[in-house]
């Protein structure tokens, strides 16, 4: 869908590289501009010659190394921008301007450029000078307050939610700007903040709190009721039950021959509730695999909580081809059409210098 669109990517680590990976999956040509020492996430992991995160986020891209503090290389970067449709950078606010590749610099060489700055707190004055990481963005957005253990302590997620959602948000903004450019011919400057990107996940919570004082959003989605809960299985694994609608709750009850539960749809997930105690015992009577099979046979919004290795083998992802294997390495893909996607491994540093030297 983006064939013929060129993206110049002045970013490193995770969020913005995920943005440009998504654009590459849509067919865009992505040229990753790196310092002479390369993206720090290149540092080898295990037996691989590149870091795991770099391998995952930089396939289907080209690499050219430029020292933006040197005039000749800065001019080369501007020539690349002049040939491009989109520029993305992930420096702290103001750094790209000081390096001579900021939005105003880009406009001088490409009058209809789409320029995206992706940072932790955005370009406004309040916190633009501060560094941050995924955990900080989740904390200040309020999202971390909604992820607590049974003792009320916020848990540390095992994935970088703000980084990935920020990357997705940036790609969404860029695609919107492309539509606007097609209609008007106008350039766009996009100031995308990782913290702002996860704030919409709190939109229900913020509205509800303003009206009721309730801090935890939609109550029935927070583990309050037996129909929407995480249950432990016989083998110490877990399944998620999300039978909010009556039809799914009925399917669940009939599937287990537990008609006596039909009237207990929204009873409390409390140890004082005998239905809850009985349900926990039923879930503990079968293994994860048994419940996984049940979930495919009975339409009741039940799903096993899979570990990473199990996700790769799940029939859903096999059928949709969102996970593929190249040379023994598993990758995820962004697919919106049935067209076959090309694959190239994450590039070596400056691998495409000769190819791009005319543009440089």
TrEMBL record:
Protein's name according to its UniProt entry: Crotonobetainyl-CoA:carnitine CoA-transferase CaiB-like acyl-CoA transferase
Protein species of origin: Cytobacillus purgationiresistens
């Amino acid at each position: 869908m983006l064939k013929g669109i060129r993206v110049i990517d002045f970013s490193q680590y995770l969020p913005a590289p995920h943005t440009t990976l998504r654009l590459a999956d849509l067919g865009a040509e992505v040229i990753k501009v790196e310092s002479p020492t390369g993206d720090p996430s290149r540092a080898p992991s295990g037996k691989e010659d590149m870091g795991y995160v770099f391998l995952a986020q930089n396939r289907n891209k080209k690499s050219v190394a430029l020292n933006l503090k040197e005039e000749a290389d800065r001019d080369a970067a501007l020539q690349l921008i002049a040939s491009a449709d989109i520029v993305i950078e992930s420096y702290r606010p103001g750094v790209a301007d000081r390096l001579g590749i900021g939005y105003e610099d880009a406009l001088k060489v490409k009058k209809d450029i789409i320029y995206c700055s992706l940072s932790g707190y955005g370009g406004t004055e309040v916190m633009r000078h501060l560094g941050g990481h995924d955990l900080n963005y989740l904390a200040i957005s309020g999202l971390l307050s909604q992820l607590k253990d049974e003792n009320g302590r916020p848990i540390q997620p095992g994935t970088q939610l703000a980084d990935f959602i920020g990357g997705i948000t940036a790609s969404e903004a860029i695609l919107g700007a492309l539509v606007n450019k097609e209609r008007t011919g106008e350039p766009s400057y996009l100031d995308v903040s990782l913290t702002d990107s996860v704030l919409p996940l709190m939109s229900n919570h913020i509205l509800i709190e303003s009206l009721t004082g309730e801090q935890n959003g939609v109550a029935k989605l927070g583990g309050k009721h037996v129909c929407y809960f995480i249950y432990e299985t016989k083998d110490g694994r877990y399944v998620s039950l999300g039978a909010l609608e009556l039809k799914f709750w009925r399917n669940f009850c009939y599937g287990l021959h537990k008609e006596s539960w039909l009237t207990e749809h929204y009873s409390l997930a409390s140890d004082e509730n005998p239905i809850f105690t009985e349900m926990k015992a039923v879930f503990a009577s079968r293994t994860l695999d048994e419940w996984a099979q049940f979930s495919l046979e009975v339409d009741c919004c039940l799903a096993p909580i899979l570990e990473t290795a199990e996700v790769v083998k799940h029939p859903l992802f096999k059928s949709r081809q969102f996970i593929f294997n190249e040379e023994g390495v598993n990758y995820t893909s962004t697919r919106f059409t049935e067209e076959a996607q090309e694959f190239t491994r994450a590039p070596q540093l400056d691998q495409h210098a000769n190819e791009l030297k005319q543009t440089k």
